[in-house]
UniProtKB/TrEMBL annotation:
InterPro entries registered for this protein in UniProt: Uncharacterised_CreA (IPR010292)
Species per Swiss-Prot/TrEMBL record: Duffyella gerundensis
Entry GO terms, CC: cytosol
One matching Pfam family: CreA
PROSITE patterns, per database record: PROKAR_LIPOPROTEIN
Residues making up the signal peptide according to the UniProt record: 1-21
Keywords associated with the record: Signal
Protein name in UniProt: Protein CreA
C-alpha cells in the first residue's frame, strides 16, 4: 500500500512540473455544421521556475465531431511569445546552469500520441531565456517550431 501511495505522489509531482495554461481567447477559422469550428486558441502560462516571465502560445485546434469528442489530432502549427512582466527571479538550478532544455509547458494535441511542448534554455553568455515550442509524436514528430527570447534585465517601474 505504501508503494502505491509513493507512486501516486510521484506521478502527481511530475504532472505538476509543467505549467498549466489559461485560455486568453480564440478565433474560428473554419465553420463546421456538426461540432465546434476549427479555431486558433491563444493561451498564457507563467514559467514555473522563473518569477515574472509569462508566455503566450497560439495553436491550431481541430473542431468537427472528432474535435468535439477529443478524438481529433491537432496540427503542429503553433507560435510563442514570452515577456518579462516584472522583476525576474531565476531559480537556483537555472542560474547555476542545471536546468538546460527543461520542459516548462506540455499540452496533449491528440488522443494519445501527440503533444505540444515548450522547452526553456538559459543563455548565460547573453543573459537571456529562450523558449522553444514544438510538436512531437511517438513515431514521427514535426520540424515546425517557434522561438521566443526574454532578455533578463533590471525591471523599471
Amino acid at each position: 500500500m505504501k508503494l502505491k501511495n509513493a507512486l501516486a505522489l510521484s506521478l502527481l509531482a511530475l504532472s505538476a512540473c509543467a505549467a498549466q495554461a489559461e485560455e486568453v481567447g480564440s478565433v474560428d477559422t473554419v465553420f463546421k455544421i456538426f461540432g465546434p469550428d476549427h479555431k486558433i486558441v491563444v493561451e498564457a502560462f507563467d514559467d514555473p521556475d522563473v518569477k515574472n516571465v509569462t508566455c503566450y502560445i497560439s495553436r491550431a485546434k481541430t473542431g468537427g465531431i472528432k474535435g468535439g469528442l477529443g478524438l481529433a489530432e491537432d496540427t503542429a502549427d503553433a507560435a510563442i511569445s514570452c515577456q518579462q512582466v516584472g522583476p525576474v527571479t531565476l531559480s537556483d538550478k537555472i542560474a547555476q546552469g542545471k536546468a538546460e532544455g527543461e520542459v516548462v509547458f506540455k499540452k496533449r494535441t491528440s488522443l494519445v500520441f501527440k503533444k505540444l511542448q515548450v522547452v526553456r534554455f538559459f543563455d548565460q553568455k547573453r543573459h537571456a531565456l529562450i523558449y522553444l515550442s514544438y510538436s512531437d509524436r511517438v513515431v514521427d514528430g514535426s520540424p515546425k517550431n517557434a522561438l521566443s527570447a526574454v532578455p533578463i534585465m533590471p525591471w523599471r517601474e
